[in-house]
Amino acid sequence: MRKLLIFLLTAIMVIVSACSQKIPENFVLVKGGTFKSTETNYSGTIITISDFYISKYEITQKEWIEVMRSNPSEFKGDNLPVEMVSWYDCVEYCNKRSIKEGLKPYYNIDKNKKDPNNKSDIDDIKWMVTINKGANGYRLPTEAQWEYASSGGRESKSYLYSGSNNADDVAWYWENSGDKPLTGYWNFEMIENNHNKTKPVGLKIPNELGLYDMSGNVREWCWDWYGDWLSNKIDPGGSVSGTDRVWKGGGWLGIADGPSYRGYWEPNSKGNDTGLRVCLGK
Predict the structure, then answer these.
(1) Any domain includes 62
(2) Residue 16 within any structural domain of the chain
(3) Domain total for the chain?
(4) Which CATH number belongs to the domain containing residue 170 in this structure?
(5) Which of 103, 150, 161, 261 can pair with 214 through a Cys bridge, CB separation 3.0 to 4.6 Å?
(6) How far apart are alpha carbons 60 and 76 in whole angstroms?
(7) Which residue from 93, 119, 130 is spatially nearest to 227, judged by alpha carbons?
């Protein structure tokens, strides 16, 4: 009987261990809730978000190199956010990091099959990327999750930017990311001569959830196709096809942006002001 009891206890421990997932230290739990989206594929609708984890910082070059064994970034530095990465690079990073850490990859990536939902004439890659339901691996946030987290989730104080009403408190953008502060109108030559660039993650103050740099440093890729369901009659659940994928947030080269701001780019595009942060959980 004692041996049977020991066997059963051991089996239970193994099962519990297998079912539990160790969350990395630099991830933040975003408790689910309901909010009204102001600028996503779901604009004007009430959205319910389930609990999920999101990285406290933008993915750094050190983190990228550890997984991808290369560094595509223009501005080099271990603690700088990785940039010059396409949407495809980002989903591949998520899967490779998942495998490296013993998690089930969140994406099914078929590089030999063209995605019929990709309507772009510019994207020459068009990998077939689908979600592996039930997987516990790393993934890009949906734009609704990104907006919810950036605005502070349940703890939101409705700041103009992610964590403050003052952009300089929370964001690196064209006016403050160079040798000296800039004023006046945006001008690329002026920005270039001022040596503007990305900054190490986490130097500004965080938002209500403890998330950094969501209003400025690098813009961040999201999972979604870009669409406007109000004008294009797309289902409020999100666009299922398109020519561009969504990015959210501000970057060092442009203005500081609030939690709701969105932009878009062909999935194969790369820029020195575009990177990512990743999620775990549904």
Answers:
(1) yes
(2) no
(3) 1
(4) 3.90.1580.10
(5) 150
(6) 10
(7) 119
Q: With a threshold of 0.70, does the pTM exceed it?
A: yes
Q: Would you state the structure tokens that stand for residue 102, as one six-digit string? A: 């013993």
Helix (H, G, I), strand (E, B) or coil at 119: coil
Range of the domain at 107: 23-280
For 97, which DSSP code?
Answer: H
Asked if the structure places residue 150 within a domain, the reply is yes
Burial class (CB in 10 A: 0-12, 13-18, 19+), 74: middle
Of 223, 248, 212, 27, give the one whose Cα is nearest residue 106: 223
Q: What sections of the chain are H helices per DSSP?
A: 2-19, 61-68, 87-100, 143-150, 167-170, 188-193, 229-232
Tens of pLDDT along the chain (282 residues)? 454 444 434 343 333 333 467 899 999 999 999 887 766 666 667 889 999 999 999 999 999 999 999 999 999 999 999 999 999 999 999 999 999 999 999 999 999 999 999 999 999 999 999 999 999 999 999 999 999 999 999 999 999 999 999 999 999 999 999 999 999 999 999 999 999 999 999 999 999 999 999 999 999 999 999 975 444 433 444 568 899 999 999 999 999 998 888 899 999 999 999 999 999 976
